[in-house]
C-alpha cells in the first residue's frame, strides 16, 4: 500500500500491479481506477507521472489492463493467450514512445514524450507485460489462490510457490478464515 493512496496494491512488477487496479474479480469486483484522475494518481505512484487523463485514455488503460490479465492468466495455466489480448498489448506497446533513462543513482526511470501522454505510460506497462508473459524475466506467473480474487501475479520467490497475490490482503483473509473455522471446530 502506498502513502496517500491506501487502496492501490503496488507490487514490484508494474504490469501485474496494474491488473490489480481491479480486485476481487471473482467476488464483488472493486474498480480502483474509476475516474481519469485515479489513473493519473496510480501512474504517479508507479513512476509514470502524467498531468492529465481523458475518459478515452482511461478506456484505453482499462482495455490494456484486462488484456494483460487475460494473457497473464493464460500464461499462468500454460494456455495460449487470447489473440485479442495479444493484439491490444502489442498495440499499446507500439503506440508508447517512452524512453528508459539512467539516473545518477543508477536506477531506471521512464521519460514520457510529454507530461500528459498517457499512451506513453501505457506503452511502458505493455512492454513490462510482454517481458513477464514471454518468460524473459526470472519468475513465474501464477494465480492467487483466493477464490474471490484469482489475480495474476508474478512470483519471484526462491521456491516459486507463492499462493497469494498479496499476503497483506488475500493471504491474511484466507488465514483468518482458516483460523475461525478451526476455532468453531474446536468449540463444537
Automatic annotation (TrEMBL):
Q: Which residues form a coiled coil?
A: none
Query: Which Pfam families does its entry note?
Result: ABATE (PF07336), zf-CGNR (PF11706)
Query: Which InterPro entries has this protein been placed in?
Result: ABATE, ABATE_dom_sf, Znf_CGNR
Ranges for the Zinc finger CGNR domain? 141-181
Name the record gives this protein: Zinc finger CGNR domain-containing protein
Q: Which organism is it from?
A: Amycolatopsis oliviviridis
Amino acid at each position: 500500500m502506498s502513502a496517500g493512496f491506501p487502496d492501490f496494491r503496488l507490487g514490484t512488477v508494474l504490469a501485474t500491479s496494474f491488473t490489480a487496479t481491479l480486485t476481487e474479480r471473482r467476488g464483488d469486483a472493486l474498480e480502483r481506477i474509476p475516474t481519469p484522475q485515479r489513473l493519473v494518481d496510480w501512474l504517479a505512484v508507479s513512476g509514470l507521472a502524467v498531468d492529465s487523463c481523458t475518459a478515452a485514455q482511461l478506456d484505453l488503460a482499462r482495455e490494456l489492463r484486462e488484456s494483460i490479465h487475460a494473457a497473464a492468466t493464460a500464461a499462468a495455466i500454460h494456455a495460449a493467450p487470447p489473440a485479442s489480448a495479444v493484439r491490444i498489448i502489442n498495440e499499446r506497446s507500439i503506440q508508447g514512445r517512452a524512453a528508459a533513462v539512467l539516473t545518477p543513482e543508477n536506477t531506471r526511470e521512464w521519460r514520457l514524450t510529454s507530461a500528459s501522454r498517457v499512451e506513453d505510460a501505457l506503452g511502458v506497462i505493455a512492454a513490462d507485460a510482454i517481458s513477464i508473459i514471454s518468460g524473459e524475466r526470472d519468475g513465474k506467473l501464477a494465480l492467487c489462490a483466493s477464490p474471490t480474487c484469482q489475480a495474476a501475479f508474478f512470483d519471484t520467490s526462491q521456491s516459486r510457490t507463492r499462493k497469494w497475490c498479496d499476503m497483506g490482503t488475500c493471504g491474511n483473509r484466507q488465514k483468518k478464515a482458516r483460523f475461525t473455522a478451526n476455532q468453531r471446530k474446536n468449540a463444537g
